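Per reviewer request, we include the raw input and output of the structure prediction for the construct analysed in the revised manuscript.
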Amino acid sequence: MSVLQGPRVERRRVIVNNSANWGTMLDDNMLRLDDGRVVDPSILQHLPPLEPMPSKIIAVHLSYSSRGIESRNNPKPTETPTYFTKPITALNGHGGELVKPDGVTYLNYEGEFAVIIGKVTRNVTPEEAWDCIAGFAPVLDMGAQDFRDTDQGSMLRVKGMDGFCPIGPGIVTGVDPRRETLRTYKNGLLVQEANIGDEMVWGPDYMIADIARYITLLPGDVILTGTPAHSRSLDPGDVIEVEITNIGRLRNHVVAGPRPRADGIGHPPMDTPEVRRVALGFDERVREDFKANYRAPRGSNV
């Protein structure tokens, strides 16, 4: 059965009495563990809803038309998708801390939905790709934009720091994300909003078929499918949430971290015009065109 078919099912992985457990969400927002116990997930630590753990996390650079207009003044920013990878150590769970190291100025959120691969996938068509998906989950693609000047293509330090890939709270089947709405909230205020099917230039089926032409995707692998406009910076104390309607709402909070002990080694965090253009969203070249072509989310202050 395709991941899009059947009733909606949400599976979560949580810590109960120091042990990791899988469970299925019930209609009353309780979680029935696989051993039969029923628990309240709101008081439990959540783990990334992945098993096995991924061999790789692949993310698309740009895939939403509003983000293309904002960053490139073009609703189709590239002719075909381009990608980068995040290390497995970037994984984080629902409710987890996002550490902003001392010296980093621009820690940006990017609300997205993730695709989790369910079987060995190689050399498939977009139509076949749907049968290779285990489910979908909200995800935050966090980025320390201070390193964009040096890691712009690879995104290694920008997007790869520990904990910079929160995913969850669960993995969901029986829902087509293309029919849903993505919303991101900063401290309860709506800051991103997109009707996914209307804004995505390339869907998850296209991305899977594209990547799997040359790279084998394995069960548990994660694909981050991109973010709409209005990615902005966070500070310690901020709470950031991304909601995909009918899939779930992921919540994380920012805390301050110390400088690395090897401070002074390697390329330092930078505050340059290019860094500010991406972290803050605008420069003079695109400001007026963007404002003319894109409506900010309802109730937002961006």
